[in-house]
Specification:
371 residues; alpha/beta; Rossmann fold; seven-stranded mixed sheet; six-stranded parallel sheet; globular
């Protein structure tokens, strides 16, 4: 079993930040993308970042989702690590075994920490098990209650969590790597056009049938992994299912589409929509939390770069007329540097217990350097 490693150690770093996460490589999803993108930019700014992740522990597959490894009994090693190499900042990114063990260790040692709310677990559980969604929110509210700050991926999610009794919730926008994700031409898939595409996790909460059952011209493509992939392949033999290896191929997949269809009704943000637009592909989605935040809308809307409508087929067809240049220009507004600035402004120093003056000073230094 590998030891804890400081993957971004750099001498003279101003802050040692520990990020505890149950989602990490080789998994590929929006949570991993956000954590790693911020981690790399923290490193570029001279900080030392330690990621505590499932690959550092014995693990078992998540029931019903074998691609997700769950760390087995991580408590003792996390306690030892916090004692051996104390961080300046603790951020808990997920609510799984590692997140819960780190939370318990911090509470036992009296260390303040921040949390993130990346995933709508209450809705996801209700999709699989017939239990009231309020039960899930009660569990999540108790988990996040001791946190000095809960990072929500969008303003609408932050407002919803606050209405549900969560404390100290701040919206934390996500970004897109516009160098990795850029227009790459339409030739990756040789199929009848128009090509309507979904990229992301293939699971019941993503409502893929809401896309695949649509009566649309041309072709449909689904790119990604997940527990529902095999059953959907059997159910929809006319749909092209593809696995992309790395961001370069993923960028080519996005670029080949004529419209990106996002059928989920339960996403906290939906980073894949920004990646699609960065590749010059317009978005069609329902007017719900996630798409509303990504497109900066408050309800059904038609913009130069996407369409939100309760009639998803109508939205997909209208999206075909949108401007690739407008999509790209909109995506360029979402920079990971700004996301990292927000992270630094809201983390908590373990020696102070207040929102970190150390982090605030770092942000001020970065801003001054850019003037």
């Amino acid at each position: 079993m590998p030891a804890f490693t400081d993957t971004n150690d750099r001498s003279g770093a101003s802050v040692h930040i520990l990020i505890a996460t149950d989602a990490w490589y080789p998994m590929t999803n929006g949570v991993v993308r956000v954590i790693d993108s911020v981690r790399l930019r923290l490193f570029d700014r001279g900080h030392r970042v330690t990621v505590v992740s499932p690959d550092q522990f014995a693990s078992v597959p998540c029931p019903g989702y074998a691609e997700i490894p769950l760390a087995v009994a991580p408590q003792r090693r996390i306690h030892r690590f916090l004692k051996k190499d104390p961080p300046d900042v603790v951020h808990i990114a997920t609510e799984g075994p590692i997140g819960r063990a780190t939370r318990a260790a911090c509470q036992r040692k009296g260390l303040p920490f921040t949390n993130a709310y990346h995933t709508e677990f209450p809705q996801y559980v209700t999709e699989r098990i017939p239990v009231p969604v309020d039960w899930g929110y009660h569990i999540m509210r108790r988990f996040h209650a001791p946190s000095r700050c809960v990072f929500a991926p969008s303003r609408s999610v932050a407002e919803d969590l606050t209405r549900r009794g969560f404390a100290n919730v701040l919206d934390w926008a996500h970004g897109v790597d516009t160098k990795a994700f850029r227009p790459r031409g339409k030739g990756f898939f040789d199929m009848p056009r128009p090509i309507f595409m979904y990229i992301g996790r293939i699971a019941v909460e993503k409502n893929l049938r809401g896309f695949l059952d649509l009566d649309l011209p041309g072709s449909k493509v689904v790119v990604g992994r997940g527990p529902d992939r095999d059953s959907l392949i059997d159910r929809y033999p006319d749909v092209r299912f593809h696995l992309a290896h790395g961001d370069d191929e993923l960028s080519r997949c996005y670029s080949a589409a004529d419209a990106f269809v996002f059928p989920s009704r339960t996403n906290t943000f939906g980073l894949v929509m920004l990646e699609a637009m960065a590749c010059g592909v317009p978005v069609a989605a329902f007017p719900v939390s996630g798409p509303l935040d990504v497109l900066g809308a408050k309800g059904p809307v038609e913009t130069a770069f996407g369409v939100l409508d309760d009639d998803l087929a109508k939205a997909a067809l209208k999206a075909l007329d949108k401007s690739p240049d407008a999509c790209r220009a909109y995506a360029e507004r979402y920079a990971w540097d700004a996301v990292t600035d927000q992270f630094l402004a809201n983390i908590v120093a373990v020696d102070g217990g207040e929102r970190s003056s150390l982090a605030s000073a770092t942000v001020r230094e970065v801003q001054a350097a850019g003037e």
